[in-house]
Design a protein that fits this description.
alpha+beta, about 80 residues, 5-stranded antiparallel beta sheet
């Protein structure tokens, strides 16, 4: 699964061949969260609260790019949070 962003120890990845709703994965150490692209809700996982807040801030900023990436199934490296 290609890495599309890294920031504050968080790695964001996306699989195109997965089934289900459009989503991305956020990994922070041994913790993983799966986020729905439409709602940005964590639909699976156990990310710590601080990591989840950072992922949501990042996802809000790049929501359109994430949707386009899923729609066209073309990976793009996105910046992290500054």
């Amino acid at each position: 699964m290609p890495v599309i962003a890294r920031f504050y120890g968080i790695i964001v990845k996306m699989y195109f061949r997965e089934h289900g709703v459009p989503h991305f994965h956020a990994i922070y150490g041994e913790y993983v969260g799966v986020f729905d692209l439409a709602t940005l809700k964590m639909i699976e996982g156990d990310l710590p609260a601080r990591a989840k807040r950072l992922v949501l801030a990042w996802a809000r900023k790049y929501r359109q790019e994430l949707g386009e990436m899923w729609k066209h199934q073309k990976y793009v490296q996105l910046p992290g949070l500054e």
